[in-house]
Every structure is written in structure tokens, then in C-alpha cells.
């Protein structure tokens, strides 16, 4: 299996697992919490059929990557993305992030610039700044995140069940847009992640990306479901067109957070339209 070494913790290297398929313009898909690169299974074949080279990778602590106890801040996570870009010598790349993965895209462009990047896509985005503060009244109260961390520390498997129900709006979409089996698969992948990483990622969600956003100088597509229970659209997606030059927001009616699964057909059509291709 292919890995890229991005650091070291004590006596062990930190290895990021990746997959690299197809030929053509590269598309890097960056997954959301608490899943892995395999969660793009409804987008990967569409992109391959359209003639793209598609790279997925597992964030440190998740999937098949190493599970260190360090590096769950966005500067380090963007450094991991940069290691992938440099190791594979990717040029003219389309960066696609989902949920927590949108933070890597934004921080990468803020720290490393767009020399290797053609366009960007932010799906169910975490920027601009999720925490409610005096100068960010649209954010979410700190107590919400304190409660999440307490729930993870107390009973991570039970927390994942609750989280994934809201991730997919199972009470509304279960049995139609998501099966019990697909939900069980997501739980299994999430439960296999590092317990430390699952907890350590929560403070990263409160990263302030407002200084990064003006540095984004590539065309950017933002897509979010208007029924997202994980990242409120009024706190996140709807704010971004005013903060990122040359960007536009497309809302998916009734879409939960995990639109890449529950609304894959709609999302794929929007994504391929942005790329100038037709989904097939």
C-alpha cells in the first residue's frame, strides 16, 4: 500500500496512506471527520470516467494512516496535504474538501499559495470561523464543543452513533437516501479511527480561517445542504461568497451534512458542471 511519510513521533514515522488512480488533470479529495478517503466512493468513479486522475488520502489518525498523538492542528494538516502535493508532484490540481477537509484546502491555499492549484471545491465547509466570539456572532457557542469533547471522552462509540445520525439526517433520510448498511459502514470506519485523534480534532474545528480566505486566488465552488445539522449553513457556507473572491455557493435543498452520500447524484452534477464535464 502506498504511504507518504510526513513526520515522526518518538521512534515511529508518521505515514499518510493515499490512493492514486486514473490519468489526466489531478483531483485531490480530502475527506471529512470521522471517516477516511474511502468515503468518496460515489464521486471517484464519476471523476475517473470523466478523465481525471483522482488522489484520495486518509488524514493522520484516520483510515489506514498512522495514528500519532500529535499534529491535529490545521497548520500540520495542511503540511500533510503539501507533502502529498509535492511527493506526487501535482500540478494544475483541483482541490476538493468535505467538512473538516475544507479546512485543509483553505489553510493550504493560505500557507502555500496556488502555484499547484487550478480550482477549489468546499463541500459542507467548516470555514470561515465556527466559534462564536465578540467579533464572530454568527458562530456556535463554546459549550457545544465542550459537550462534544465530553461525549467523546465518555463513550466514543456511542457518540459516533449519535453524530452519524445527524451527519446523515437519518430520521428524515434513513431507508431512502441512506441504508442501515451504509450507516453501519460509516460507524465501523469511524470507530476504527484513533480515539486520540477523534478527540483532538474537535479544537481544530474552532480554527479561525478569516485571514486565509482573502488569500484564495483560484475559482472556488461552495456546496452545502440547507438541512446541515453538523455545520450550520448560516455560520459556514452562506458566509463564504462574501469572503472568497471568485466564489459561488450552491445549496442542495433538504441536504444533510453528508451530501456526498445522501445526495450524490445532485452533488456530482454540480461538481462536474463546475469542472466543465457531465456526470455519467
TrEMBL record:
Domain AB hydrolase-1 per the UniProt entry, residue ranges: 26-263
Coiled-coil ranges per UniProt: none
Superkingdom of origin organism: Bacteria
GO molecular function, one term: hydrolase activity
Keywords recorded for this protein, A-Z: Hydrolase
Presence of keyword Ion transport: no
Cross-referenced Pfam families: Abhydrolase_1 (PF00561)
InterPro entries, per the entry: AB_hydrolase_1, AB_hydrolase_fold, AB_hydrolase_sf, Epox_hydrolase-like
PANTHER family linked to this entry: AB HYDROLASE SUPERFAMILY PROTEIN YCLE, MONOACYLGLYCEROL LIPASE
Name of this chain's protein: Alpha/beta fold hydrolase
Amino acid at each position: 500500500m502506498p504511504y507518504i511519510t510526513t513526520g515522526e513521533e518518538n521512534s515511529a514515522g508518521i505515514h499518510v496512506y493515499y490512493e492514486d488512480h486514473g490519468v489526466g488533470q489531478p483531483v485531490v479529495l480530502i475527506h471529512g471527520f470521522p471517516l477516511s478517503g474511502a468515503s468518496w466512493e460515489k464521486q471517484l468513479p464519476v471523476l475517473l470516467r470523466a478523465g481525471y486522475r483522482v488522489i484520495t488520502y486518509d488524514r493522520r489518525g484516520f483510515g489506514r494512516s498512522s495514528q500519532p498523538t500529535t499534529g491535529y492542528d490545521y497548520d500540520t494538516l495542511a503540511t500533510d496535504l503539501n507533502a502529498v502535493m509535492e511527493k506526487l508532484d501535482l500540478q494544475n490540481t483541483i482541490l476538493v474538501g468535505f467538512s473538516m477537509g475544507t479546512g485543509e484546502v483553505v489553510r493550504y491555499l493560505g500557507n502555500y499559495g496556488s502555484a499547484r492549484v487550478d480550482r477549489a471545491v468546499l463541500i459542507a465547509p467548516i470555514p470561515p470561523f465556527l466559534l462564536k466570539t465578540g467579533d464572530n456572532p454568527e458562530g456556535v457557542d463554546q459549550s457545544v464543543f465542550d459537550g462534544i469533547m465530553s461525549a467523546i471522552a465518555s463513550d466514543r462509540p456511542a457518540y459516533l452513533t449519535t453524530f452519524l445520525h445527524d451527519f446523515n439526517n437519518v430520521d428524515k433520510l434513513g431507508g431512502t437516501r441512506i441504508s442501515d448498511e451504509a450507516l453501519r459502514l460509516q460507524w465501523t470506519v469511524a470507530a476504527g479511527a484513533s480515539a486520540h485523534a477523534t478527540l483532538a480534532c474537535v479544537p481544530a474545528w474552532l480554527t479561525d480561517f478569516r485571514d486565509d480566505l482573502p488569500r484564495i486566488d483560484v475559482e472556488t465552488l461552495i456546496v452545502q445542504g440547507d438541512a446541515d445539522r453538523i455545520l450550520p449553513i448560516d455560520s459556514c457556507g452562506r458566509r463564504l461568497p462574501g469572503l472568497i473572491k471568485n466564489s459561488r455557493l450552491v445549496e442542495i435543498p433538504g441536504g444533510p451534512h453528508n451530501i456526498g452520500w445522501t445526495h450524490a447524484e445532485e452533488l456530482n452534477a454540480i461538481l462536474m458542471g463546475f469542472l466543465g464535464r457531465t456526470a455519467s
